[in-house]
Amino acid sequence: ESLMLYDKVIELEPHNSHAFLNKGNVLDILGNYADAIKCYDSAIECDPYNAEAWYNRGMTLKKIGAVEEGLCDIRKGISLSMGEI
Fold first, then answer.
1. Interatomic CA distance for residues 62 and 46, integer angstroms
2. Residue 85, pLDDT above cutoff 80
3. How many beta carbons lie within 10 A of that of residue 18, not counting itself?
4. CA-based nearest residue to 28, from 12, 52, 49, 48
5. Are 39 and 21 in contact (CB under 8 A)?
């Protein structure tokens, strides 16, 4: 149900990075890692300074075995959250 609600928000606000982020979080919890990563990508495309999207994408990438790429994203998310660019 929450996925359908996020889809409606995204349909109405296609540049809503928080909706993409939260949809990605739900997909990650459900184990749908490929689609979660796509949502995190969309969140980052809408807002490249979204620290949580970078961090969460990194964590999901690690789950699918892309450890180095995941660690880079995690570091970027931490850096952004600390005000570093």
1. 23
2. no
3. 16
4. 52
5. yes
Give per-residue pLDDT as tens, 9-44. 999 999 999 999 999 999 999 999 999 999 999 999
- Closest by CA position to 60, among listed 79, 34, 80, 42: 34
Structure tokens at 84: 């570093």
Residue 25 vs residues 28, 84, 85: alpha-carbon distances, Å: 5, 24, 24
* Helices and strands per DSSP (H, E), number in the chain: 5, 0
Contact partners, residue 4, CB within 8 Å, separation at least 6: none
Give the integer Cα–Cα distance in Å for 61 and 18.
19
Q: Is 50 helix (H, G, I), strand (E, B) or coil?
A: coil
